[in-house]
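Dissemination and training. As part of the outreach component of the grant, students in the summer workshop were shown how a complex can be specified as a set of sequence lines and then modelled as a single object. The example used during the hands-on session is reproduced here so that future cohorts can follow it. Participants entered these lines:
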Amino acid sequence: QSALTQPASVSGSPGQSITISCTGTSSDVGGYNYVSWYQQHPGKAPKLMIYEVSNRPSGVPDRFSGSKSGNTASLTISGLQAEDEADYYCSSYTSSSVWVFGGGTKLTVL
Amino acid sequence: QVQLQESGPGLVKPSQTLSLTCTVSGGSISSGSYYWSWIRQPAGKGLEWIGRIYTSGSTNYNPSLKSRVTISVDTSKNQFSLKLSSVTAADTAVYYCARLTVTEGYFDYWGQGTLVTVSS
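and obtained this result:
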């Protein structure tokens, strides 16, 4: 099972919006709504930010939103803040009954 | 509040078996609503899903690791474990245990992670 494809890095200034893409296939991202996103700060465990494509867990700011079109899911962060600087990973359930992660995207807040 | 804690040796010799245990507190590992999963992350690299186990003992593994991985559960101790055989330097990573929801398929609680180094 191949990893999902994410851009290696994205950047934005405080207050701006950025979008991170996560591209898979019809056997994973395109075939199921079990796409989730995780934020990871250096030396820390990943933290769930979005589940089932577009749902936010309690406590996650509404600046974070998710969507999906075809085989590509996206995470959008609006009103960028310094504390959003982190690595972001997408994950999807697959037709092989296993889970796969994206390669990760480093977000830099300029 | 559910908490997960990994434990096990931080150093394993090449060709030996890596063994880790995840202790779950604040919730029962026997809950039918969750799978229990292992995920790893080599230094400076991305996350790799290793496998998951259900309270019944049923498992699914990453095909790339399937021949070397065994995940087991001990409901009496509220723990689940990972064994990875024939390790090489490529298995050096931070290993996380995590709770995976059955119906929505996301990892909602994670352990802090434990670094396992494969070296002689």
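The CA atoms of residues 13 and 110 of chain A lie 5 Å apart. Students were then asked to discuss how this feature might be tested experimentally.
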